[in-house]
Amino acid sequence: MSTRETIIQLGDQLIRSKGFNAFSFYDISEKMKIKNASVHYHFPTKTDLGISILEAHRQKLHSLIESTSTKGPVDKLNSFLLIYTTIKSEGHVCLVGSLATDLNTVDLKIANELKTFADEILNWVTTILDEGKTSGVFSFQCSPRTKALMVITNMLAALQLSRLTNEEDFYTIRNEVIKGLKD
Amino acid sequence: MSTRETIIQLGDQLIRSKGFNAFSFYDISEKMKIKNASVHYHFPTKTDLGISILEAHRQKLHSLIESTSTKGPVDKLNSFLLIYTTIKSEGHVCLVGSLATDLNTVDLKIANELKTFADEILNWVTTILDEGKTSGVFSFQCSPRTKALMVITNMLAALQLSRLTNEEDFYTIRNEVIKGLKD
DNA sequence: GTCTATATTCCGATAGAC
DNA sequence: GTCTATCGGAATATAGAC
């Protein structure tokens, strides 16, 4: 992996473990055994790094949407839920949740990129649920978009709340989300 | 209101608008037209202030639980949901969500106080849903505690996600939470 | 591309006068 | 209880050598 990619990866982990305002370029340089100034060579400002981290997440999402495009709604939803299970196994929170709580402190460019990312996630899940409802593998009363909002908020906050109440609560919520698609 | 109470109130708003690591004692002193050092007189460390803010929230919760104790489950649930609607009207996120994403950066005392607060919220909502299920005004398949986890995660993340997708999505989620208690 | 060195700003915290 | 003044540390960022 290139230096640039490593910085993005470490920055991503730091945002999701400590928050955007709590991590520093030194945190990254220290782990890579390079100097602070070297990180600035690749990303002049912290905002530049934030944007690149968001772009990497969007790219990864686009790849996942593409690679699961021929599968059924159940498989697609499992792919979506697996994102959160992976994050939980790392003990972190998701990028959207972490940056959403810091929204008023980040550069407008980051805020806008984050909004685009959130919209893309919402649109994907809405499409999955719509397909599933049409084909009959999912059953719910409200609109696919509203159900997508419910599913996403359950998973996003499951990562945050289960840090406080009980780690197992994440899986309790995850299982109930799945059950909630068959009523 | 006393100086101490004003500091707590402003600190609370700052945590929920900018996050714990992004606000400073100067932010508070500036708005109160006093000096940085005066804030430190009331709260020697930032951790001390964080603890007091959490204690104030717990106290407020206890008062709400007490004052609604004679009401029915529907009224109690509306009181719970009103907390989030009020926060939304201010454009902020909730204290639990804000501090949960910063959990790895705060003093252990704050983390423990936050966990207690989250447990108290979960226990209250669980009790409300249990009462409602027993009396028949609420209907759901899973356990009251699991349903409480679903409701809380929906509301907590609705504040965060609706900042990004659409402000109206908060109310969409809120209404769907209510509908979800009558299936 | 990475380094040393440094400029600049900001923050948490404290000492001591009033 | 609030003030002035300041210390010490940390973080973002840049200049210029290698």
How is this fold's topology laid out?
The structure is a homodimer of 183-residue chains.
Chain A: H1 3-18, H2 25-32, H3 36-42, H4 46-67, H5 73-90, H6 95-101, H7 108-135, H8 144-161, H9 169-179
Chain A binds a DNA duplex (18 and 18 nucleotides) through residues 3, 24-26, 34-38, 40-42, 44-46.
The poorly predicted ranges of chain A are none
Give the distance, in angstroms, between the N- and C-terminal Cα atoms of chain A. 46 Å
Oligomer category:
homodimer
Assign the CATH superfamily of chain A: Tetracycline Repressor, domain 2
**What sequence of helices (H) and strands (E) makes up the elements of chain A?**
HHHHHHHHH
Distinct helical segment count of chain A: 9
Tell me roughly what share of residues is in helical segments of chain A.
over 70%
Main interface: chain pair and counts: A-B, 45 and 43 residues
Largest sheet properties of chain A? none
Query: Mind telling me the CATH class of chain A?
Result: Mainly Alpha
Principal-axis shape of chain A: elongated
Structural class assignment of chain A: mainly alpha
- Per DSSP, what share of the residues of chain A sits in E-state strands of 2 or more residues? under 5%
Q: Return the average pLDDT of chain A rounded to an integer.
A: 98
Total strand count of chain A, please?
A: 0
**CATH architecture tag of chain A:** Orthogonal Bundle
- What's the number of domains of chain A? 1
In CATH terms, what is the fold-level topology of chain A? Answer: Tetracycline Repressor, domain 2
The gyration radius over C-alpha positions of chain A equals: 18 Å
